[in-house]
Amino acid sequence: MTLVAPPENIIDYYLRFTDEVEATNAMKEAGYTAYIEGNDVIQSKLGVCINPIGILYETTVTGDDIVAVPLDGWHVNIRKPEGLLPEALMPFKVYPQNPKNVWA
Predict the structure, then answer these.
(1) Quick one: 92 exposed, middle or buried, by C-beta within 10 A (0-12, 13-18, 19+)?
(2) How many CB atoms lie within 10 A of CB 53?
(3) How do residues 29-58 score in pLDDT, each as one tens digit?
């Protein structure tokens, strides 16, 4: 078996959409969906990792109480080799100072 080294310049993109429908439509336009059982489903391509997160929550703990407040938007993270993000996804890029969900 031959091992192939990963590309050196991997870029993480954080995307925020209004809702799942908008995310799926933009991902479809970018070529990151598959048509499965009558539905468009977000799907990775070779060399591209996609994490459709959905709604993110801000949680606080007070004593025994945990409160989860939904944050605005429907979120998707993409990890891909350096290069341009497809044009259809550019309007949805966000730059979180402290991302809630990151790649390991």
Answers:
(1) buried
(2) 16
(3) 998 887 777 777 777 777 788 889 999 999
